[in-house]
Amino acid sequence: MSTDLIPLLWDATLQTLQMVLVAGAMATLFGVPLGVVLHLSKKGQLLENRLLHRSLGLVVNIGRSVPFIILLVAIIPFTRMIVGTSIGTIAAIVPLTIGAIPFIARLIEAALIEVPVGLIEAAQAMGADKKQTIIKILLPEALPGIVNSITITLVTLVSYSAMAGAVGGGGLGDVGIRYGYYRFEPDVMIATIVVLLILVQLFQSLGDAVVRRIDHR
């Protein structure tokens, strides 16, 4: 690998981090509340609403069933409407966010299911209303699982961002395709994969460290 590709890999890494962190933050902002509502609205939960649960569940399932590479192309008009272009790092954040929201929502729903029912019943027995039970019992108890869900989402977004590079999204995927594949330079491809693996390990290690710090069970 020639030395002039080192700055290119560095810039591509920064672009990938930008895509992953911004899309991860946006997906968390919308996906976590969606996952909470999915859990609370199901049968037997605090805010039971079967119609709402089925409707949201259908939307989430549809979102999760669309392969990301197809989603990238399918929402190009929407991406152009939001950011004014369908090419580049900023444009890639739009499909990354949309693809990650239903993903993290289901993970959050699963994390909330792990909270022992006895804790909820005990809080209600002591006079806590639904709002207090959700804010002071359910969410704090599920916090390690929520953080783990966000970590998994960030790791998944790293691979999604690489796919975005295949259609002009920039980042490490773009470098791997343009310089490694099209120019038949396997060392560039290997370097790209190594950097992606490092990013995945970094996000996973940081997430695990936070979970260990807040999990007092």
From TrEMBL:
Domain ABC transmembrane type-1 residue range list: 13-207
Residues passing through the membrane, by range: 20-40, 52-76, 82-105, 146-168, 188-211
Membrane topology of the entry: Multi-pass membrane protein
GO BP annotations listed: D-methionine transmembrane transport
Compartments, record wording: Cell membrane
Taxonomy, superkingdom: Bacteria
Protein name, per record: ABC transporter permease
